[in-house]
Design a protein that fits this description.
This protein is mainly alpha-helical and 332 residues long. It has helices at residues 18-31, 53-70, 87-96, 101-105, 108-117, 123-126, 128-137, 151-168, 213-222, 239-252, 256-263, 268-294, 297-326; strands spanning 5-10, 36-41, 78-81, 143-145, 176-178. Bound molecules: adenosine-5'-tetraphosphate.
Length: 332
């Protein structure tokens, strides 16, 4: 097995959607052939904004099952729940001592989310990127597959690794983001300028991976479009059309050029059923596997337990190395 590692996580903040899948999960699945994969459900990141405590555990299990149903192979890759590996928090604490306050306050996601949350903004939201850096650096990975929304956080991770290595010695590997061009930013079905998101209250704004044929049909039917004739990629004034064509391209497995030719002269009356059919066929196998995995919770729990044990050994070792480099007295 390759000794190159890849790390990626998803927050259990709701229904995993097509954007999560196209922007991150499918890349993780592809990378596990040539890399040691560490894939986790980022539950500690899910409690930094308003959330429903009654649903957290359920969303955590469902997200783990989505990973497996999408093709993560637990015999080759390590699948675990973030909070089951305490070294992530230990490492975040020590990285916090070199994380510049000013830089953290300028993180775009923090600025957006804290503006929305006002007085409810918590410390966990502010130092989210430091915990994310710890999540990644703990495994010394080469690559981190993410959607383009996480690019800035990845850059902070690189800065923290470099800063630490320069000051205390070479403990961390500086990871590279892997942002695929296609699918890096899937947009909302109701607003082509906002990204598809789990926490958007309007469920019609996204295709959930577990949406059945009727839901997909209705969501595509109601997806925002425009009145301009013909369908085209890449027109900045037509973000909704570009998004729907991109989704069709990825779900159908056709090339961009093929889709541009196939759909260029179509109206929405013809295109939307085509998109619906492509999506339903794309999602069906994932949904069948998901149902099977969720039907055996004991097996799922065993996979996550074993994953946390495997991940814990590596993350603990990195934490030990980092603390020793920083001058902490060793534990006997
Ligand atoms: N719309 C998107 N297009 C492409 N990639 C996306 N990702 C998220 N949304 C899109 C990628 O999915 C991975 C997991 O994301 P996350 O669960 O950690 O949190 P997020 O980025 O905040 O995703 P959401 O769905 O928008 O959740 P909420 O609404 O809770 O904030 C990441 O790699 C992300 O880039």
């Amino acid at each position: 097995m390759s000794n190159k590692r890849v790390v990626s996580g998803i927050r259990p903040t709701g229904n995993v959607h097509l954007g999560n899948y196209l922007g991150a999960i499918r890349n993780s699945v592809a990378l596990q052939d040539a890399h040691q994969g560490f894939f986790f459900i980022a539950d500690l990141h899910a409690v930094t904004e308003e959330y429903d405590a009654k649903l957290l555990a359920e969303h955590t299990c469902a997200t783990a099952a989505i990973y497996l149903a999408s093709g993560i192979d637990a015999t080759r890759s390590t699948l675990f729940v973030q909070s089951h590996v305490p070294a992530h928090c230990g490492l975040a604490r020590v990285l916090g001592s070199i994380a510049p306050f000013g830089l953290l306050s300028r993180m775009v996601q923090f600025k957006d989310k804290s503006e929305r949350q006002g007085a409810k903004t918590c410390l966990g939201l502010f130092d989210y990127p430091v915990l994310m850096a710890a999540d990644i650096l703990a495994y010394k990975p080469e690559l981190v597959p993410v959607g383009s929304d996480q690019k800035q956080h990845l850059e902070l991770t690189q800065q923290l690794a470099n800063r630490f290595n320069k000051r205390f010695g070479p403990v961390f590997v500086v990871p590279k983001p892997l942002i695929m061009q296609d699918g890096a930013r899937i947009m909302s079905l109701s607003d082509g300028n906002s990204k598809m998101s789990k926490s958007e209250p309007n469920d019609r704004s996204r295709i959930n991976l577990l949406d059945g044929a009727d839901a997909v049909k209705a969501k595509v039917h109601f997806a925002k479009t425009d009145l301009i004739k013909g369908l085209e990629f890449g027109n900045r004034d037509r973000p909704e059309v570009n998004n729907l064509l991109t989704i069709y391209q990825l779900a159908s497995g056709k090339s961009r050029e093929h889709v541009a030719t196939e759909c260029g002269d179509m109206g929405y009356g013809k295109f939307k059923p085509l998109l619906t059919d492509a999506l339903v066929s794309y999602l069906e196998p994932i949904q069948t596997r998901f149902a099977r995995i969720m039907g055996d919770r004991a097996e799922l729990d065993a996979i996550l337990k074993q994953g946390a044990e495997r991940a814990g050994v590596i993350a603990e070792e990195t934490l030990k190395q980092a603390m020793s480099a920083m001058g902490f007295a060793g534990r006997t």
